[in-house]
TrEMBL record:
Residues 25-249 form the Peptidase S1 domain. Residues 1-22 form the signal peptide. The keyword Signal applies. It catalyses: Preferential cleavage: Arg-|-Xaa, Lys-|-Xaa. The gene is LOC114798167. GO terms for molecular function: serine-type endopeptidase activity. It comes from Denticeps clupeoides. This is trypsin. One of its GO terms (biological process) is proteolysis. Its EC number is 3.4.21.4. It comes from the Eukaryota. Belongs to the peptidase S1 family. One of its GO terms (cellular component) is extracellular space.
């Protein structure tokens, strides 16, 4: 009982941190500019607060907890430095922000959202959609390494976003429910480093976890960042392929 309570309190704290300042990559490094071609920055008043992933020319997937009214947010593709105008940026208004119908903001189950861009992105050398898996694809091999990217904080207790895009290699952690007292649903997966030190963090929320070239996860939540006992928790994108196709099909 006591443990449950503590976990809940910690969870709420961690959420508050990840949502308000949006977490950044811990233990990673700056990427080659524009090499993560599906990476999106979601911005409110021109300020980055969450990541996203381009999956179709006019659609970006992110986390439900990154929702804001569509009229108040913009999506930036082909972005590297958030502070410099580098001339390659593609900036879009958002015409629809559609949160999963079963999203639970207390447990973070179904933490997924689709954003329809006001116009399709220009696909080019810097901008390409990520690959979604089909039901028929073989299951995720938990020994593959994955990459998570974002502009989130690069130091654990920092509240400053990274100015440039970072990425870190993490491993899928299969027995994650042990660490999180049963709070990991079948729609979540965990990834991190066995010794800690590598993780997504505030400001990375909504961004991509790519394993073996496929979009497997969306940065969702965690207790603290880069702690060996509390790996990062991701929305398991495989479970939503049907929903994604249905939403896109009915909102084209
Ligand atoms: C986004 O919408 C605003 C307000 O409707 C408009 O002024 C602006 O030009 C639009 N931006 C783009 C990139 O379409
Ligand atoms: C998973 O990947 C490892 C190393 O890449 C490989 O040895 C193993 O056979 C794979 N397992 C499955 C079930 O594909
Ligand atoms: C989500 O994935 C797990 C396996 O990883 C599966 O057991 C479960 O049925 C899936 N849920 C849905 C709603 O597809």
């Amino acid at each position: 009982m006591g443990q449950c309570f503590k976990a809940t309190v910690l969870l709420v704290l961690a959420l508050a941190v990840r949502e308000s300042s949006g977490q950044r990559i811990i233990g990673g490094q700056e990427v080659v500019p524009y090499s993560i071609k599906y990476q999106a920055s979601i911005q409110y008043n021109r300020v980055h607060y969450c990541g996203g992933t381009l999956i179709r020319p006019q659609w970006v997937v992110s986390a439900a907890h990154c929702w804001r009214p569509s009229s108040l947010i913009q999506v930036v593709l082909s972005e590297h430095s958030l502070v410099l105008e580098e001339g390659f940026e593609q900036i879009f208004n958002v015409s629809k922000a559609l949160v999963h119908y079963n999203y639970n903001y207390q447990t973070f189950n179904n933490d997924i959202m689709l954003l329809k861009l006001a116009e399709p992105a220009q696909l080019n050398a810097n901008v390409q959609p990520a690959t979604l898996l089909e039901d028929t694809d073989p299951p995720l091999n938990s020994s593959v390494s994955c990459t998570v990217s974002g502009w989130g904080v690069t130091r654990i207790y920092s509240s400053y976003l990274s100015q440039v895009l970072y990425a870190v290699v993490v491993n899928v952690m299969p027995n994650c429910n042990f660490y999180y007292y049963g709070k990991i649903t079948e729609n979540m997966l965990c990834a991190g480093s066995r010794f800690g030190g590598k993780d997504s963090c505030q400001g990375d929320s909504g961004g991509p976890l790519i394993c073996d070239g496929n979009l497997e996860g969306i940065v969702s939540w965690g207790i603290g960042c880069a702690n060996p006992y509390f790996p990062g928790v991701y929305t398991k994108v495989r479970n939503y392929t049907k929903w994604i196709k249905w939403v896109i099909g009915t909102n084209e």
